[in-house]
Design a protein that fits this description.
The complex is a heterodimer. Chain A is mainly α. Chain A contains 12 helices and no strands. In chain A, helix 5 runs antiparallel to helix 6 and helix 6 packs parallel to helix 12. Chain A starts with a helix and ends with a helix. By secondary structure, chain B is mainly α. In chain B, helix 2 runs antiparallel to helix 3 and helix 4 runs antiparallel to helix 5. Classes of the chains: A mainly alpha, B mainly alpha. Chains A and B meet through helix 12 of A and helix 1, helix 4 and helix 5 of B.
Chain lengths: 303, 213
């Protein structure tokens, strides 16, 4: 644990709500609109925190607990990610499994809360959410396996830290493919186009949005913030794979993190402008293709 | 140049996945055109001392496989008014998974084969993977046009395999093969077009009904 990694974590926690803002702004500009300002989510969060929460009489403590579980999971997961590209605050062998399943546990909390409301729409959203998650998991773990092989290490800090720079000189194509696979995982995991549309207003077509429809006030603020933070963490993983920062000075690697996060935000926005949402039946296919891409990367590393 | 060749070979494998994963005939044909282009650039990357033969082979491959054949297939789709949808016998997800298995088998076999040089290993692996994926497309896609695509991929795999030997095999033989393919696909296209005018289906599923009736 170093000062740099603490500083990087602080920046990530503060900058997280700007990332969906950058994506939204890019989308607005490419489609010829002005769009809401980049810091809109900060305003929304402040507004929601001042409001009270409304709870349906059907829902129980599960529903009230879910936002806290989600935020706790994402915050703990953020300790494992080497945001400065060198080392994370907490590292141990196998922390990649903890990282993946903390994100899954947060999702599980939200799904339970959605089912707890007793609304059929939310149940449907929850069902689709977990269906996607089951297809995302192989892609995520195959990518992590590839990184583990390339860097000969079993923790996220090991993957994205020093050993990866050496791996780039001998296994560049595999790493590019794994980064591509991880980016698809990022889009699916954070419910962005082409897997889900954060801007849709029809319950039937919503997936993640409908599952949190009953949350209000501070609860919704927590869910929105945790979603933005999850996007930031996965973006930091993709950046870590693409730009190994071993041996760089702390300030430069943090600057790369900030620049990289902005680039990922722009990339997400560009994808949302140039393509429509996929038909529901095509989604597993794309996620399996991402898994196949990662698997191909692994085969190359082994060959 | 070795790195460029490796990159080209990897992109060829990715075009295999594109053919397996797409639901549209147009994308399928575009993927096979890209594969032809990559194949055409491959001899230039493999043999950095460009001779007239290498350049001739590259030009011939690119003109026929990346321009003429895809254009012809696109023409066949348009003229025969084929429905622009790939009709697979097995699902796309299963196709992609089988494609990944094909790549794994290709790489495992190439590792096991006693090859003269290490550089040839990737070539053989990609060649085998492309041949297997070609068979997969031939057997699991119903439309006659997609079977032409599968046949082309099969030939592309053999072409890659031939490149391991290209220093010993005269380029004229390779060019002769290219011409054969061109004529073959041309005839297939004409036949497909005529079948489509006479009958209302292009699928081979119905031909089983002929037996014993």
């Amino acid at each position: 644990m170093t000062g740099t990694s603490l500083a990087a974590l602080g920046i990530a926690l503060l900058a997280a709500p700007a990332l969906p803002g950058i994506a939204g702004r890019t989308k607005a500009m490419l489609t010829g609109r002005t769009g809401s300002p980049v810091w809109q989510l900060y305003r929304d969060l402040a507004k929601l925190m001042r409001k009270g929460a409304v709870y349906s009489t059907v829902s129980t403590w599960v529903f009230r607990l879910a936002p806290a579980v989600l935020l706790a999971c994402v915050l703990v997961a953020s300790l494992f990610v080497p945001l400065d590209g060198r080392t994370a605050i907490v590292r141990f062998d196998g922390d990649l499994v903890a990282f993946a399943y903390l994100l899954a546990l947060g999702r599980f909390g939200l799904v339970l809360a959605a089912l707890d409301t007793g609304s059929s729409f939310e149940g449907m959203g929850a069902s689709r959410d977990v269906t996607y998650a089951s297809f995302v998991e192989p892609a995520l773990f195959l990518s992590f396996t590839g990184l583990a092989l390339a860097s000969d290490s079993l923790s996220l800090s090991g993957f994205l830290g020093e050993p990866l720079a050496a791996a780039w000189s001998r296994a560049a194509p595999s790493l590019v493919m794994i980064a591509g696979s991880l980016f698809v995982v990022l889009l699916a995991e954070t419910s962005r186009v082409p897997f889900d549309d954060p801007a849709t207003h029809l319950e039937l077509t919503m997936i993640h949005e409908v599952a949190v429809l009953d949350h209000s006030g501070p609860d919704l603020a927590i869910i929105l913030y945790a979603g933005a933070l999850k996007l930031t963490l996965l973006a930091a993983v993709v950046i870590g794979v693409l730009i190994p920062r071993a041996g760089w000075s702390g300030a430069v690697s943090i600057a790369v993190l900030v620049g990289g996060l902005a680039m990922v935000g722009v990339a997400v926005g560009v994808i949302e402008s140039v393509m429509a949402r996929l038909r529901l039946t095509r989604v597993p296919q794309v996620l399996v293709a991402a898994s196949a891409l990662a698997a191909f990367g692994i085969i190359l590393l082994l060959g | 140049m070795q790195r460029v060749a490796e990159l080209l070979l990897l992109l060829i494998v990715l075009t295999n996945f594109a053919v397996l994963g797409t639901a549209r005939l147009g994308t399928c044909i575009r993927a096979i055109a890209v594969q032809g282009l990559l194949l055409g650039m491959l001899p230039l990357a493999l043999h950095p001392a460009w001779s007239v033969h290498t350049i001739g082979l590259a030009t011939g491959t690119i003109v026929i496989k990346a321009v003429l054949l895809p254009r012809f297939l696109a023409w066949a789709i348009r003229e025969a008014a084929v429905r622009r949808e790939v009709e697979p016998r097995i699902g796309y997800v299963a196709s992609l998974l089988l494609g990944a298995v094909a790549v794994a088998v290709g790489f495992a076999t190439a590792q096991a084969l006693p090859l003269p040089d290490a550089a040839g290993s990737l070539l053989v692996a990609v060649a085998l993977a492309t041949v297997i994926v070609g068979f997969l497309v031939l057997t699991t896609r119903i439309k006659a046009l997609t079977q032409v695509v599968g046949y082309l991929m099969l030939e592309n795999g053999i072409y890659v395999f031939g490149l391991t030997q290209s220093e010993r095999v005269p380029f004229m033989v390779e060019l002769g093969v290219l011409l054969d393919i061109f004529v073959g696909v041309f005839i297939m296209g004409i036949v497909v077009f005529h079948i489509n005018r006479e009958f209302d289906t292009l699928g081979d599923g119905k031909s089983m009904d002929l037996a014993g009736r």
